[in-house]
Amino acid sequence: MSVSNTSFVRTAILAPEPPPPGERGAYAWLRRNLLATPKDAVLTVLAIAALAWALPHMVDWLFIQAVWTGPDRTFCATAVQGGIQPDGWSGACWAFVNAKFDQFVFGRYPLDERWRPTIVGILFVLLLVPMLIPSVPRKGLNAILLFAVLPIFSFFMLYGGFGLEVVETPLWGGLLVTLVVSFVGMAVSLPVGILLALGRRSNMPVVKMVCIIFIEVIRGIPLITVLFMASVMLPLFLPAGWTVDKLLRAVIGVSIFASAYMAEVIRGGLQAIPKGQYEGADSLGFGYWQKMRLIVLPQAIKLVIPGIVNTFIGMFKDTSLVSIISMFDLLGIVRLNFADTNWASSVTPMTGLIFAGFVFWIFCFGMSRYSVFMERYLDTGHKR
């Protein structure tokens, strides 16, 4: 007679026990991340000492001794918290930023017409936010409105159309130009980069050679050279009497430059896809474009999201180079205002550059954080 041993078999998994008290909490985090080894401890102490020395001076200059309001540079040169600094030195001149803020955003766009870029900016945000939220439906319609309808509508609103007064692009400037050039560059460089990457891996010799030459030539020259060529040399190849808008030249130059770098990022993702994925798509009878659109590209793009966002961030910052062709983006318009004699002081340039740098950092940090979010969301092991 056999005896059953089923009574000794556990029917439920034990609940996980909490970690030991010494392995959780603030002290455990500090020990694990900052004091794990003697070298880490020394570096942590040095870093804390450096911050303890630098932060009070930075806070004092940026906020405590800063001048927040005032009609001209005399307040920034001498005024400190309503008093007079004995040596004529003051903190940051935020009064300069406050007085020039509208110009930093719109450039020399006419005052009575600035409602037009404001409406375009609001529509851009209203279409961009649902595009960035994965759970919002109708992404196809959203993409059409954002990348096709909005640019056309924005052109007529900003330049002139629908019976509105024409505002020439040389009057555009500031953050307006930065966003226009970077948005168009991003919207163009990604699809063009994908096509160039596919062309570089093509089995057709002519297509492959053309893509390789384009990518290697553009990647081998600085963006400033591309902008000079678009601004100075392009008109030489046009028929007499023809011209191309200066802003359009800058947009084309930035888009071409970014497309070459984007192509190499996408090509890295394509090479990381296992050969079995291609063979599996072929076995299902998929054509080339079906295979790429449904099987290969979704996986490749997911793998290179950090590289794509890194290219976008670099392009966003490189828009400041358009100032060499007399198009003043945010940084360019800030530097242009340094020549205003009403605000010329020893602290005005530093304050303006800090403001411009902070605005660039806000946009770049936002793109970086969204990249991290999308990586986690698209992770195959992510629980939604």
Keywords:
globular; MetI-like fold; 2 domains; 15 helices; about 375 residues; mainly alpha
Q: Provide a count of the helices.
A: 15
Largest sheet: 2 strands, antiparallel
- Cα end-to-end separation: 52 Å
The domain tally reads 2
Unreliably modeled segments: 79-88
| CATH homology group of the largest domain | MetI-like
The secondary-structure element order is HHHEEHHHHHHHHHHHH
Strand content: under 5%
CATH topology term of the largest domain? MetI-like fold
What is the CATH class designation of the largest domain? Mainly Alpha
CATH hierarchy: architecture of the largest domain = Orthogonal Bundle
Which shape, going by the Cα principal axes? Answer: globular
Commentary on this structure:
- This protein is mostly helical and 384 residues long.
- The protein has 15 helices and 2 strands.
- The protein has a two-stranded antiparallel sheet with strand order 1-2.
- Strand 1 and strand 2 form a beta hairpin.
- It is globular.
Topology:
Elements: H1 26-33, H2 38-64, H3 73-78, E1 79-80, E2 83-84, H4 94-106, H5 115-132, H6 139-158, H7 175-200, H8 205-219, H9 223-233, H10 246-272, H11 275-283, H12 288-303, H13 305-318, H14 330-336, H15 348-378
Antiparallel strand pairs: 1-2
Helix pairs in contact: 5-6, 7-8, 7-10, 7-13, 8-10, 9-10, 10-12, 10-13, 13-15, 14-15
Summary?
The protein has 384 residues and is an all-alpha fold. It contains 15 helices and 2 strands.
